[in-house]
Design brief:
The protein has 814 residues and is of the alpha+beta class. The chain contains 24 helices and 22 strands.
Length: 814
């Protein structure tokens, strides 16, 4: 018992003597294990929370949306459902009216004028209920009155109070009595259908159906139907039956039928889980690997520094098993402390991730427990690594002769590693100036492990910053395309389809501050080509030969294919087409008197444009008859007069009869930029952990190197070299390790970044075209972290070097 107590006290003494180093190594393990648990646990959180939230608000399984600008009498869509063959599988039905509007939520001197939507539904619907976070629901007695619930993320973005008043198209004041959300708006998306675009640039007002009908001047009308199905029902079968029912009704209706899995917001959320899970798994694994390399290397070097003491013990006849117990106890202490600290790091990272996720998405149910099972797996690895790192040098030390173990410094090196290469390389430095390079080559295993730890951190940084660079390039390209030749243009959306010379179009053209006006027609369509997946388009029919603006063409020619479709490069890639190819366009066609039917038309792809948004497509005005709407417009593009601010022009158009909304050319890009800025908060956490890990690994390496080379340093001091020279040599050696790690990290990071952008983000956000981009600033940041920060860490040992007792350090008997 006394012997065991002695070993424990001896081990405790070792721990106290090296407490800073032990704590730093334990923190390295903690960062790897804790970050692994914190990052990889988000997928389970989100899946549970999404499922629970959609179930709580009874999200629809199938949705019928009539063609934009058309409606049907209330009850007619419900009657269609009752007549389909599988009507008995329908468990809930709700009709509603959704109307595009403009919302003025200006307050406190801040102008807030954005596009929006009025969603009218029956009180307490069985499908797609509204959840209120703050304030209250609209009361039954308020039905028909301008009272609403304002969408949560929009209200929070602009710091609006829980109740207040906004103005909508036509100047009508609408009071909102609460802030809430519905299943369609968990992932805010504007009419363009692009996720992440709705928080800052799109407002939704939830109102009773009668209120929406009165405000939209559509008494007794609806334009949407949502329904839920019995468990196990095939949603696509019901959707097919509903599509047939729309065309067979006495007065055929035109519209689209969408199943839950194809809803843009729903698909984006769940696909985002898969993409983010792969991304976070990679980040967490790289952090864990970096911590593993660092902990293994550093712990083994701590034990190797005790090699001489192990040799003395063997020379005195102490059994090898007892000699091994002391350093093994040190490994246990480091491992245990690392696991304990890792639990704390895991909790901190988990809470930070939970805070960001709950802030990004307005879910009514969030379930974010700490993932103990995931942490346990990482902790087992974190506990085993220091023990393995200790066992390896101990095993090597106790297998040699005591006299060999006692040798230290250059005498302990076997074979000199790769230092013989210096004889063949034309190294300009001579004498002690070669020490940094000799040290790196003398112990290649140590050099490689330290460099890999730093390289893992650099790879994460390249991956994270590379994704941000790709987003920045996409936004820059979008803005450049939108503002080219007309940065101040404003697009006014009309309340329906009107003739080009109608009073509504003339009112926009004659509004105060308007210089030029061009009639536009925007129609939804679906493109298909061969076996490729269908692509949803928003076709803008405009004068491609002139007008106020026309798109840039990156391939093809309108002269060669007159009247052809101009697709985005992303849409062409996804469809597998190029200029000159023919595709099928599934689109609504007017049959007169405000009714539409769905038709298929074969259209030639004339050219491609560079807008990264996949949905954007163009046709010349001469092809408006494709939709049965020749000489018709549902939007007007205007250029302001000289000196007129586009924001003031929006306000003027806001009050113009027949206008439901007005947006500047860059508003969509600005809204998307704001959404991406919110998303990057998650990447900031990964970047912070990465920086901490790289600095810890570098500090530990520099600190251990100072211990290992204390006699070498003391010898140089004894020969008159100043402290600054010895520090310079240490800085150069650290810079060499950092350069090796940075080079490996950049290569690995480039590969991961390319895979993330071209594969994962393409799945998560198929509506956006992203190119792999790495800005010079990203490389500069990697160099500053991997080389600059690592090279400077030896300066932290300055105090120790200045206080060194040179005679005592040199007093070693060989």
């Amino acid at each position: 018992m006394s012997s065991r107590l002695m070993w424990l006290r001896w081990s405790w003494r070792d721990l106290r003597q090296r407490w800073v180093l032990v704590l730093a190594i334990a923190l390295t393990i903690a960062l790897g294990t804790g970050a692994y648990a914190g990052f990889t646990g988000t997928a389970d959180w989100r899946t549970r929370s999404y499922d629970a939230s959609y179930a709580k608000l009874a999200m629809h399984d199938v949705r019928v949306t009539l063609t934009k600008g058309t409606t049907a009498p209330a009850g007619r869509l419900r009657h269609l459902v009752a007549g389909i063959p599988s009507a008995d599988r329908v468990t809930g039905v709700a009709e509603r009216l959704t109307v595009p509007i403009q919302v003025d939520a200006s307050h406190g001197g801040r102008e807030v004028l954005v596009a929006g939507r009025l969603v009218g539904t029956v009180a307490d619907p069985a499908v797609d209920r509204v959840h209120v976070y703050t304030g209250r629901q609209v009361k039954a007695a308020e039905t028909g009155r301008p009272v609403s619930v304002l969408e949560r993320t929009f209200a929070r973005y602009y710091h609006l109070p829980s109740s207040g008043t906004v103005r909508i198209t036509g100047g009508t004041h609408v009071r909102y009595v609460g802030q809430g959300t519905a299943p369609d708006y968990f992932s805010p998306a504007a009419d363009s259908g692009i996720p992440m675009i709705g928080e800052s640039g799109f407002a939704v007002l939830f109102v009773p159906l009668a209120t929406a009908q009165r405000l939209a001047d559509a008494q007794g009308q609806v334009n949407e139907l949502v329904l839920t199905l019995a468990p196990g029902t095939d949603q696509k079968t019901i959707a097919g039956q509903l599509e047939q029912a729309l065309g067979r009704s006495p007065t055929p209706l035109s519209g689209t039928v969408t199943v839950r899995g194809d809803e843009i917001g729903y698909h984006a959320l769940y696909e985002d889980i898969k993409g983010d899970a792969r991304f976070f798994d990679i980040i967490a694994l790289l952090l864990l690997m970096g911590a593993a390399f660092g902990a293994f290397n550093l712990t083994s070097r701590v034990v190797e520094a005790q090699r001489r003491e192990i040799g003395i013990g063997m020379a005195l006849g102490v059994p090898r098993s007892r000699i091994a117990a002391r350093p093994m106890l040190l490994g246990v202490q480091v491992a245990s402390l690392g696991v304990v600290l890792g639990l704390g790091v895991g909790v901190i990272v988990s809470r930070a991730m939970a805070g960001l996720l709950t802030g990004l998405l307005p879910l009514p149910v969030w379930n974010t427990p700490f993932q103990y099972d995931t942490f346990l797996l990482a902790a087992l690895l974190g506990f085993a690594l220091p023990l393995l790192a200790v066992a390896w040098p101990v095993w090597r030390a106790v297998r040699v002769r005591p006299v060999d173990a006692i040798r230290v410094g250059h005498l302990a090196a076997r074979g000199g590693g790769l230092t013989p290469l210096l004889r063949r390389l034309p190294v300009p430095a001579r004498g002690y100036r070669q020490i940094p390079l000799r040290n790196a080559l003398r112990t290649p295993r140590r050099t490689v492990l330290t460099s890999l730890g730093i390289g893992a951190a650099v790879a994460i940084l390249i991956t994270v910053f590379g994704m941000l660079d790709s987003f920045a390039t996409m936004l820059g390209d979008s803005e450049q395309e939108a503002t080219r030749g007309g940065s101040t243009r404003v697009i006014a959306q009309l309340d329906g389809y009107h003739a080009d010379d109608s009073a509504q179009v003339r009112a926009v053209a004659s509004a105060k501050g308007v210089d030029q006006a061009t009639a536009l027609l925007t129609m939804p369509a679906t493109a298909r080509h061969g076996d490729a997946k269908n692509v949803t388009l928003l076709v803008e029919v405009r004068d491609l030969g002139g007008g106020t603006w026309r798109p840039t063409l990156t391939a093809g020619s309108l002269a060669r294919h007159p009247g052809g479709l101009v697709l985005s490069e992303k849409a062409a890639h996804d469809l597998g087409v190029r200029p000159g190819d023919t595709l099928v366009l599934h689109h609504p066609r007017s049959s007169g008197q405000g009714t539409f039917t769905l038709a298929d038309s074969r259209v030639t792809v004339a050219a491609l444009h560079p807008n990264p948004l996949r949905t954007v497509a163009y046709l010349d005005r001469s092809r408006a008859d494709l939709f049965g709407l020749a000489g018709t417009a549902n939007a007007v593009e205007v250029l302001p007069t000289s000196g007129t601010d586009p924001g003031h022009l929006k306000q003027a158009l806001f009050a113009t009869p027949g206008v439901t909304g007005a947006q500047t050319a860059t508003e969509t890009v600005d809204a998307l930029r704001n959404g991406i800025d919110e998303f990057t908060g998650i990447l900031d956490i990964a970047a912070g952990v990465t920086l901490a890990l790289a600095v810890l690994i570098a500090f530990n390496a520099a600190s251990i190197s100072a211990d290992e080379r204390s006699r070498e340093n003391a010898t140089m001091f004894a020969f008159g070299l100043p402290v600054r020279t010895v520090l310079t040599l240490a800085v150069v050696e650290s810079a060499l390790l950092g350069a090796l790690g940075t080079a490996a990290g950049i290569l690995l990071g480039q590969g991961i970044d390319r895979w993330m952008v071209q594969v994962q983000l393409a799945r998560t956000m198929p509506e956006i075209g992203l190119d792999v981009t790495l800005a010079p600033g990203t490389y500069l940041t990697a160099l500053l972290l991997g080389i600059g920060a690592v090279a400077l860490t030896p300066l932290l040992t300055t105090r120790r070097l200045r206080r060194m007792n040179i005679p005592a350090t040199l007093r070693v008997v060989e």
